[in-house]
Each structure stands twice: as structure tokens, then as C-alpha cells.
């Protein structure tokens, strides 16, 4: 599938540059022609000789290399590939690209090109989390740059968190997705996420502790596989991903209306923590203490079950409907019963007892329940869960 493709590989300056050497081998094994570009900082980590030997091609390093200008020119170099891959994409390279700076060969190539760009970031976790990097990431995404990783884990600097460059084979998969449109190209996937807020009166509401992290990660992972994603979200504490159609709602009833309006979809994933009940006698005005010492009696009405109503549609049901089950005991038993009761295809079950730290945390340990049974996955970052689930969804829709 990749044979005959041409990749311009920009190797930035980071300890992960050694993985770029393996990436070159993996690409060449698949018949990809790799033209390497090494930044000055990149050359501190890997030598031009090893890069060119593995690539079987000349390494481009300097912007004002007259031979290179005469042979090809940096403008042409940037356009002679099917895809530009930046691995590792350092914080500095991302910042330059986000700002459109062109003060060395790598940044000039990125500015001069109309070829799609895929970045595999690698940096210290604090640098990745820094507002400036996140701002640059959002800008680059908005500009159409694709990303793979970073992954969470132990880092060369001794810290732990997101910042490790994606593994070479993950980058190869992302390259394949970028060049072919991805396994979910042409598919529409709907994702609900976040909590709902159910008003008590105009200033108070009933909510839950869902952060929206898992739904957001899932929408991003589905987008990365090429899906058109509609993301219906309650008031979540994490920002919605870039590059998806965001519909913001507050209540369960608004969420149902937004979901129905977004159909048809090939798959629908209901990751939102929807309130089961709303206040039936919500005040039109702010409720006041009346001096009697008596608390107001709230009456509740059941909210529509969005997952069940979409699962049980006779017309326009998405081919794959996935629900989530947040349980605090008998997780598999309750979730298996829930799958049958609601009529969805899969249930992603997780234990949200406070001691697991899952609700509002960055990790998740799920059991995927389908007609074929229950499959327990190891505990991993919510991003990794999202990527694995997105890959499963792609396989199911293929
Ligand atoms: O019944 P329970 O709330 O545990 O079911 C969880 C699943 O059902 C989640 O996928 C959630 O998004 C969905 N749900 C829904 N509408 C509701 C309640 C839950 O879509 N009113």
C-alpha cells in the first residue's frame, strides 16, 4: 500500500531521533522512498552518515547549500514528496511551523510546501503540557497538520507523562492513514461526551464528575483515522478536539436532540455521562429560603436514554452503536446486562469507584463487552484506550 510513495522525513533535535533511524528502515522495507532532512539540533543526536546510509539517499541539512540549490532547490524539495513527516517534532519545530517562520531548512520546507504534513511530537512532558505548545498544536491542527502521539510513559529525562514519540510502527500506520485517507475515510462517526447539567433553577444545576477526557480522546482518535466526527458534548472540563464538528449542549434532552439532528452516522459512541434524572419542578426564578427552615422538595423526572433510543431505532440506526458503562461494583455483570437492555452492539465498561482514580483521571482500565463476550484490557492512558477503540471501530466498519 505504501510502495512507491515518497516521504520527506524531517528529523528534529531530540533524544527520540534514534527512533527516526528505525522509522527509515520500516519505511524502506515497505518500498517507500525516504528523503531525509536533518536539523542542526537533530545532527547532535544522530549522524548524517547513519541517516543517509539507512535512507539510501543524501541528507539535506542546510538552507543555503548551493549544490542543493543547483540540484533541486528547497522549494522543489518540499513539493517532491507525497507526505512530509516530522519525527521527532520538537517543541521548537512545532513553534516555528505554527508561526510560519523560515529560518532554517526544515522550517522553510514546512512553509514552502503544499504537501500534507504529519508530525510525531517528542519532548519533555512539561514542555508538551505548556500552554504555548498546546496553542501551537491547536494552530497546526487548524492548519491541517496531522499528528501521531506523543505517547504517555517514562521519559529519557526521568519524568513520566505524555511526551514520548510514537513508536516507528505507529508512525508508519499514521503515514499510511495520511496517504490513503485513513481506514475511516468517508465515514461519519458521532461521539457524545462530558457530563450534562440539569437545572434546579436559573443559577443551580445537578451535574456529575465526568471530565469529558475519554470522549474527547476518542473523537480525536477517530478523526485521526480519517472519520468525519460530530462531537456532541455537555459542559466538559477538557476542551473539545480540533478538526471535529462540535455541538455544545447542557441537558440530556438537548443532547438527544443534537444526536438526532446529527444522524445518519455510520457509528455512534455514547461516552457522555448523561444525568438519569432531571429536576421536574425546576424553578423559573432563583429559589429563595423562605425563613421556615424547610428545604425545598425537588421532584425528579427520568431523562430520555439517548443510547437506548438510538440503539433501538428501526430506521436510521448507525451500523455500530457503542455505549459506556461506568460502574462501581460487579462491572462486567452489570455492563453485560446493560448491553442487552439498551440494545447497543458494544459496551465499554469501567470501574469508576473513587479508589480507581479513573473518573477525572488520565488513565482507564476497560472491559469491552460485545456479543462475543467480555474482553478485559490492561490499564492504560485514556489516549491509548481511545486509539485502540478507534482501531476496533474502524475494523468493525471495514
Ligand atoms: O445506564 P447508564 O447511564 O449507566 O448507561 C451508560 C451509557 O448510556 C453511556 O453510554 C451513556 O452515554 C448512555 N446514556 C445515555 N442517555 C442516558 C443515560 C445514559 O445515552 N440518559
Summarize the structure.
The protein folds into two domains: 6-180, Flavin prenyltransferase-like (Rossmann fold); 188-397, CoaB-like (Rossmann fold). By secondary structure, the protein is an alpha/beta fold. β9 and β10 (204-206) form a beta hairpin.
Please give a structural write-up:
This protein folds into 2 domains: 6-180, Flavin prenyltransferase-like (Rossmann fold, 3-Layer(aba) Sandwich); 188-397, 3-Layer(aba) Sandwich (Rossmann fold), CATH 3.40.50.10300. Helices cover 34% and strands 24% of the residues. The protein has helices at 17-29, 48-55, 66-71, 74-79, 91-99, 105-112, 125-129, 131-142, 168-180, 213-224, 252-262, 306-311, 331-342, 382-397; strands at 6-11, 33-38, 83-89, 117-121, 146-147, 151-154, 160-164, 188-193, 198-201, 204-206, 228-233, 245-248, 267-270, 277-279, 300-302, 320-327, 346-351, 363-364, 366-370, 373-376, 380-381. The strands form 6 sheets. Strands 12-11-8-13-16-17-19-20 form an 8-stranded mixed β-sheet, with helices on both faces. A 5-stranded parallel β-sheet has the order 2-1-3-4-5, sandwiched between helices. The protein has a two-stranded antiparallel sheet with strand order 6-7. Strand 6 and strand 7 (160-164) form a beta hairpin. It binds cytidine-5'-monophosphate (C5P). Cytidine-5'-monophosphate binds at residues 192, 252, 270, 272, 274, 276, 303, 305-307, 323-325, 338.
Amino acid at each position: 500500500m505504501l510502495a512507491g510513495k515518497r516521504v520527506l522525513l524531517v528529523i528534529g533535535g531530540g533524544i527520540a531521533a534514534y527512533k527516526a533511524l528505525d522509522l527509515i528502515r520500516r519505511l524502506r522495507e515497505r518500498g517507500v522512498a525516504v528523503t531525509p532532512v536533518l536539523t542542526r539540533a537533530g545532527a547532535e543526536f544522530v549522524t548524517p552518515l547513519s541517516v543517509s546510509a539507512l535512507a539510501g539517499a543524501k541528507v539535506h541539512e542546510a538552507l543555503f547549500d548551493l549544490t542543493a540549490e543547483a540540484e533541486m532547490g528547497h522549494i522543489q524539495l518540499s513539493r517532491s514528496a507525497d507526505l512530509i513527516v516530522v519525527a521527532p517534532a520538537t517543541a521548537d519545530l512545532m513553534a516555528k511551523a505554527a508561526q510560519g517562520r523560515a529560518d532554517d531548512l526544515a522550517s522553510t520546507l514546512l512553509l514552502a510546501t503544499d504537501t500534507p504534513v504529519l508530525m510525531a511530537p517528542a519532548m519533555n512532558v512539561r514542555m508538551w503540557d505548556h500552554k504555548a505548545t498546546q496553542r501551537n498544536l491547536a494552530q497546526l491542527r487548524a492548519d491541517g497538520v496531522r499528528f501521531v502521539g506523543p505517547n504517555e510513559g517514562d521519559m529519557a529525562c526521568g519524568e513520566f507523562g505524555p511526551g514520548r514519540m510514537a513508536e516507528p510502527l505507529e508512525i508508519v500506520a499514521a503515514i499510511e492513514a495520511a496517504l490513503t485517507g485513513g481506514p475511516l475515510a468517508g465515514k461519519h462517526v458521532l461521539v457524545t461526551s462530558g457530563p450534562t447539567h440539569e437545572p434546579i433553577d436559573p443559577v443551580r444545576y445537578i451535574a456529575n464528575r465526568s471530565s469529558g477526557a475519554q470522549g474527547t480522546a476518542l473523537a480525536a482518535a477517530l478523526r485521526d483515522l480519517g472519520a468525519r466526527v460530530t462531537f456532541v458534548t455537555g459542559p466538559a472540563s477538557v476542551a473539545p478536539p480540533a478538526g471535529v464538528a462540535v455541538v455544545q449542549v447542557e441537558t440530556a434532552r438537548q443532547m438527544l436532540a443534537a444526536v438526532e439532528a446529527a444522524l445518519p452516522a455510520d457509528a455512534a459512541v455514547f461516552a457522555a455521562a448523561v444525568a438519569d434524572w432531571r429536576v421536574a419542578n425546576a424553578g423559573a426564578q432563583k429559589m429563595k429560603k423562605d425563613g421556615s427552615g424547610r428545604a425545598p422538595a425537588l421532584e425528579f423526572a427520568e431523562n430520555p436514554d439517548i443510547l437506548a433510543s438510538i440503539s433501538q431505532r428501526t430506521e436510521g440506526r448507525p451500523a455500530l452503536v457503542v455505549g459506556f458503562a461506568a460502574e462501581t461494583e460487579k462491572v462486567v455483570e452489570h455492563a453485560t446486562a446493560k448491553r442487552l437492555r439498551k440494545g447497543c452492539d458494544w459496551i465499554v465498561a469501567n470501574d469508576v469507584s473513587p479508589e480507581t482514580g479513573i473518573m477525572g483521571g488520565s488513565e482507564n482500565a476497560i472491559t469491552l463487552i460485545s456479543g462475543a463476550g467480555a474482553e478485559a484490557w490492561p490499564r492504560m492512558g485514556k489516549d491509548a484506550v481511545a486509539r485502540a477503540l478507534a482501531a476496533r471501530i474502524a475494523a468493525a466498519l471495514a
